[in-house]
Amino acid sequence: MKVNFLDAFLGFCVLFVASLFLFYIYITIDTKLFGSDGFQLHARFDNIDGIVAGSKVKMSGVNIGTVKNISLEPEDFYALITMNFDKQFNFPDDTEASVQLEGLLGGSYISILPGGSDVMLLNDQEILYTQGSTSILNLMLKFADTN
Fold first, then answer.
1. Do the beta carbons of residue 106 and residue 58 sit within 8 Å?
2. Quick one: which H or E segment has residue 14?
3. 46 CB neighbour count, 10 Å cutoff
4. Contact 43, 130 (CB under 8 A)
5. Residue-wise pLDDT tens for the chain (147 aa)?
6. Which of 36, 38, 45, 50 could be a cystine partner for 132, CB 3.0 to 4.6 Å?
7. Half-sphere exposure of 7 (CA within 13 A, CB side)
8. How many CA atoms lie within 13 Å of 101's alpha carbon, on the beta-carbon side?
9. How far apart are CA 65 and CA 67, in angstroms?
10. For residue 111, which of 131, 85, 136, 90 has the smallest C-alpha distance?
11. What angle do CA 6, 11, 14 make, to 5 degrees?
């Protein structure tokens, strides 16, 4: 069996381009390539419809973090969300987190509204003021109810 060097070279080129493509995708999905230089905060919500691990965390419409983990608290049945942020952000302890819709057909994200306190939240602390997602169907039913 004769080895064709042109076929082998083209095969290596295809593998190289495919690996560059996978590397580009890995960098653009909000992961840290060379270690995590950030901190995480927790928040409890009563309803997080549309939020999944990897959802965006925004402040003033700008992406500032991602949702790392979602779990259910067994004692009070609240959803506990863990969010990752860069070290450059400092949030006051009266910061509010709420679940917002990106659009009528879009997904959901966590919106951060910083407070005015002088005391800042530290790594692994909890945002106490939260507002869960609101169902559009439930709102329409409330307005349609004539009783």
1. no
2. helix 5-28
3. 13
4. yes
5. 567 888 889 999 999 999 999 988 887 775 554 455 688 999 999 999 889 998 999 999 899 999 999 999 999 999 999 999 988 888 999 999 999 988 777 788 999 999 999 999 999 999 999 998 877 777 788 888 755
6. 45
7. 3
8. 9
9. 7
10. 131
11. 125
Q: Model confidence over 136-145: pLDDT tens digits?
A: 777 788 888 7
Residue 116 tokens read as 């005015």
Cα–Cα distance measured from residue 111 to residue 98, given in angstroms and rounded to the nearest whole number = 5
Q: Supply 68's token pair.
A: 């790392």
Strands 96-101 and 108-113: antiparallel
Distance CA 135, CA 72 (A): 20
**26 contacts 48 by C-beta, under 8 angstroms:** no
- Kindly state the tokens that stand for 38: 């950030």
Give me the residue spans of the domains in the chain.
38-135
Q: 110: which 2 tokens?
A: 């966590």
